[in-house]
Target: Chorein N-terminal domain-containing protein
Amino acid sequence: MPWSNLANEPAIVKIEDFFVLLSPRNPESKLLNTKEDEYNLKMQKLQLDELTGADMPEQNKPETNTNQAGYWENLMMKVTENIQIFIENIHIRYEDSLSNPANPFSLGFTISNLHVQSCDKEWKPAFINVLDTVILKLLNMNSFSFYLDTSNQFLKGLQEPEIIKRMKSLIPSQQNRPNHQYIIEPMSAQIKANVNRSSSDYTRPHIILDISLQEVEISMEKGQYDSFLDCGQWFSTYWKKLNYKKYNPPQDRPTENPIAWWEFAYNTIYAENCESDHWNWDYMKIRKNERLEYIELYKKKKINTKFTPFEQTRFDAIHKTYSYDDLLSWRKLATAHLAMEEKKKEEAKKQAGWFSSWWGTAKEAPQQKEVDLAWEELYKAIGYSET
Model:
């Protein structure tokens, strides 16, 4: 990043050897599937919101200096419009031996190189003036491919250096042609983007794209099609299992422990149907009372007031009962209440200070009603009217 010469030099981003290797997790392994896990995740999100100020209503967030915001906007515009991106060797690969153990497969897409640059009218790389109403972008992509190999030659069991070496060797290029079962054969493309930045010029489109492709070959074998179906069915079943796993299904088979499975079925149906149908007046009254209780407790927490053991118990219980969205909404209300109370205190101090300069130093700020009466008497005494 040429910070010392942003007016004349582009920002350059270079990425080499971007590799991602994925594989499905065994559904029997420990996942986020218990109420305790969900509670811990909810509390982590709430703690992060508190640190980042996400629990604060928009109207209470500090305003951004307009001049400072304009400066950063212009700086980012200057950088992004002249940024040059050079990416070499992209390979994202997914290996699956779980969806159908009899027919393992691996699929992935690769790009040999990808370049994005700003250009002049001749489509040659150039530095763009931030005041130009039209900017030109050129994208060159070489050897893009998508494959699905119906074999069990996996990389996930290898050491990291060997994985990196193999991932790179499996990227097709002009010099290298790996033996993949391609769905999209390696192809190259060039995209020219003509972007109109003027907000008042309606005589031309906002973006004009000129896309040039080499010969595109797309094909799919029966084995590849079957692997796609197996993978889709496996993930569908996986998500169903994950949804019910939080209800702690028995480890035995239904024929081995039918009573436990009947209890599991009853608890699951009750939780998904009966517990969700609770929007009656009694529930709404309880929810209202606990919302008000939580707001007061969170206000105490924000001003570092120590909880009593009972208050701590209630605070934790409400956390476990309500959703993340409910709790975040109530925290915003509590923060707004605190801001209003602080504002009232500041106004009372100002009025009390001005009043005490006439009648002596006040040790305590009077109530708002008493202050209003005192002001009325003072106005009458000096012959002043606010109207």
Q: What stands out?
A: Residues 324-359 form the longest helix (36 residues).
